[in-house]
Structure to design on (164 residues):
């Protein structure tokens, strides 16, 4: 299966500006860059997503996906099933950010990111891609000196039980 990972255009632009002007990214820009890199690593549309999941989510994670509530282990099990479904059903499955909003508090204690994206699924049979939207809300905290997602709320129009 050919995969395209999440588009990281927002963070790449912010990082390029910081490099060009020889300034550090603002805390909010740094948060956007961190989130995009984390999402690139944990979204279950590629084979190495599990390592990214473990590095990005806190063990104390509180999450929802659509209507279900999950902890760290159960959400990982759900993502494992999604990865298997994506791999079995699609020759390519892409995710591209369409909007990303971040809030970084001055004390560097709480950080919030919201993201919406467009998912395109290319079936194993020839034809045009099918598209759905997805959105997520994340709270990012410092856990044992490392940024981790401690709360994750995801809604998606993708259904592993039915074609996209």
């Amino acid at each position: 299966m050919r995969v395209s990972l999440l588009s990281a255009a927002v963070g790449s632009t912010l990082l390029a500006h910081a490099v060009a002007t020889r300034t550090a990214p603002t805390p909010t820009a740094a948060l956007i860059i961190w989130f995009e890199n984390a999402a690139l690593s944990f979204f279950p549309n590629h084979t190495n997503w599990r390592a990214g999941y473990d590095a990005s989510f806190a063990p104390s994670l509180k999450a929802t996906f659509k209507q279900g509530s999950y902890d760290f282990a159960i959400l990982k099990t759900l993502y494992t099933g999604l990865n298997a479904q994506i791999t079995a059903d699609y020759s390519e499955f892409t995710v591209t950010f369409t909007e990303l909003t971040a809030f970084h508090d001055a004390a560097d204690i709480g950080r919030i990111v919201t993201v919406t994206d467009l998912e395109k699924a290319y079936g194993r049979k020839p034809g045009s891609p099918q598209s759905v939207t997805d959105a997520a809300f994340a709270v990012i905290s410092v856990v044992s000196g490392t940024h981790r997602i401690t709360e994750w709320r995801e809604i998606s129009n993708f259904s592993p039980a039915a074609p996209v």
Notes: Strands lie at 2-4, 57-65, 68-70, 90-104, 111-123, 130-143, 146-156.
